[in-house]
Amino acid sequence: MLELIRQPWHWAVAGVLIGLTVPTLLIIGNKSFGISSSLRHICAACFPADIPFFKYEWKKEIWNLFFVAGVLIGGFIANQFLSNPNTIVISESTITDLKALGITDFTNLMPADLFSVDNIFTLKGLFFFVIGGFMVGFGTRYAGGCTSGHAIMGLSTLQLPSLIATISFMVGGFLMTQLLLPLIFKLF
Amino acid sequence: MQKSGALINEEFVCDAPNDQKKKEPLAGNFKYMLIGIIFGIVFTKAEIISWFRIQEMFRLQSFFMYGVIGTAVVVGMISVFLIKKFNIKTISGEKIVFHDKVFNKGQIYGGLIFGLGWAMTGACPGPLFAQIGNGFIVVTITLASAIAGTWTFGYFKDKLPS
Predict the structure, then answer these.
(1) B83 — alpha (psi -120 to 50), left (phi > 0) or beta?
(2) Which family does it belong to (chain A) (predicted)?
(3) Is some CB atom of chain A closer than 8 A to the CB atom of B84?
């Protein structure tokens, strides 16, 4: 059994479990699924700075912070006790494309070429941690949600604005991957 | 919605609101942590937190992420349909609240910006936390920067087109 759990899980298993989060949160506590809100609650709790956008009863929404703390712990548990003994299987064509960009490490979930401590004070770190992270935080809040709030919860409740947001997420991702990443990798 | 004596300056619009009327003790929040833990395990075991999976998705070289998101949406839709159809209540007996989202241009501009960042970091907000749990320490910088991005949005909110 543990052998089976240690293998990478099929997309359908993940999809069903993620989808079931929607009714689970609703039924146990009347909570709408959405993860990027946690970033706003952290701002409201720690650095409200008298900004109206951060003046609300964040304590009422604290469940969301417990949830993301759980996601972090879940990542730790899976990594420590359930990790896949084999290297990650990546599409051959993706490997070819990424090798052309200069990625050399394909053994872990994240390439060491980018996501290593050595890169913190480099141009790579500036782009992939600082600028990338900033755009995730700024963009999700501007859009009013992320993949969970819009793509999953929003589409589940048939919200047209969520469809528009989801399409915009995808367009942004395609633009970065197809047009901008080749330019960014030339800088290194 | 008018709340007397509260600090709220504008109607609080949140994409993941808590609509439960019954007050929960702080310890009651551990059940959401438990769901988060399961979620983090799923994210990791299905390798959704992998930068490579996101690259495959945006290069249209693997069906995997489309399969995950598509299945999640279908399961979510069926669940919401059943909750509405059978008027299923929460465990504390309250009516389940759904929110209609209102269109604004931020969903396009913000959505594009998030998409650009998603393809760089290989993570939307949920996987950021799971990546840190998996020991990718540098992602704490990404998370801190994402919090800074959210704060900056809040600061400039009224000056941005919406």
Answers:
(1) alpha
(2) Belongs to the TsuA/YedE (TC 9.B.102) family.
(3) no
Query: How many CB atoms lie under 10 A from the CB of residue A127?
Result: 20
Contact B59 A37 (CB under 8 A): no
How far apart, in whole angstroms, are the C-alpha atoms of residue B115 and residue A58? Answer: 27
Chain A residues inside the 8 Å CB shell of B99: 32, 157
Residue A5 has pLDDT above 50, yes or no: yes
Question: Exposure pattern of B107-134 as b/e (b: 16+ CB <10 Å)?
Answer: bbbbbbbbbbbbbbbbbbbbbbbbbbbb
Nearest residue of chain B to residue A98 (CA atoms): B55
Cα–Cα distance between A144 and A161 in angstroms, integer?
10
B134 min Cα distance to partner chain A (Å) = 5
Please state, in angstroms and rounded to a whole number, the distance separating the CA atoms of residues A134 and B97: 32
- Do A173 and B116 contact (CB within 8 A), yes or no? yes
Maximum distance among all alpha carbons in chain B?
54
Flag if A94 and B117 touch (Cβ within 8 Å): no
User: What's the average model confidence in pLDDT over A112-129?
Assistant: 97
B95 has pLDDT over 50 = yes
pLDDT of residue A1: 83
Residue A187, chain B, CB below 8 Å: the answer is no
Segment A25-48, tens digit of pLDDT: 999 999 999 999 999 999 999 999
B-chain CB neighbours of A171 within 8 Å are: 111-112, 115
* B52-76 per-position pLDDT tens digit: 999 999 999 999 999 999 999 999 9
| Over residues A9-27, mean pLDDT | 98
Element (H, E) at A169: helix A160-175
Contacts of A30 in chain B (CB under 8 A): 18-21, 90, 94, 96-97
Ranking A100-104, A140-144, B1-5, B57-61 by mean pLDDT, the lowest is B1-5
DSSP letter at B16? S
